[in-house]
Design a protein that fits this description.
Elements: H1 2-9, H2 23-42, H3 51-73, H4 77-99, H5 103-107, H6 110-129
Helix pairs in contact: 3-4, 4-6
């Protein structure tokens, strides 16, 4: 992992690049909100009407988990950019489809969408600058 962090530290940084320490607390808060959103969504059981929103949720979560290996381990900025673009789409689809079942579950995902939008900007800037 140290080699991967050296690679990252040597990249040209975008203008709005936040300090490294912000990522862990931010993702912790977001993952808690994502978990609460999911719990609210499945409250009352997984019905046939919840199948598509569940699929969207699982896809965005898998994409979320795929981004770090693509960016840091594989050091593939363009692949990470494609992953985060699809992740943004599936988060949006999750928000829209969760809304019918739980407005609060949907609202709890909005900060996640905003953060991933900012992360997309960062990833795109790394792509352009490096």
């Amino acid at each position: 992992m140290m080699k991967n962090m050296e690679w990252f530290q040597n990249l040209n940084k975008p203008f709005l690049n936040p300090p490294d320490w912000i990522f862990a607390p931010m993702w912790t808060i977001l993952y808690i909100m994502i978990a609460i959103s999911f719990i609210l969504f499945i409250k009352g059981g997984l019905t046939k009407e919840k199948k598509l929103p569940l699929i969207f949720f699982i896809i965005q979560l898998l994409l979320n988990f795929a981004w770090t290996p693509a960016f840091f381990w594989m050091q593939n900025i363009s692949l990470a950019l494609a992953i985060i673009a699809f992740m943004w789409i599936f988060i949006m689809l999750t928000i829209i489809t969760f809304f019918k079942h739980s407005i609060l579950a949907s609202i709890l995902l909005i900060p996640y969408l905003f953060w991933v939008s900012f992360a997309f900007y960062l990833n795109f800037a790394y792509f352009v600058l490096n």
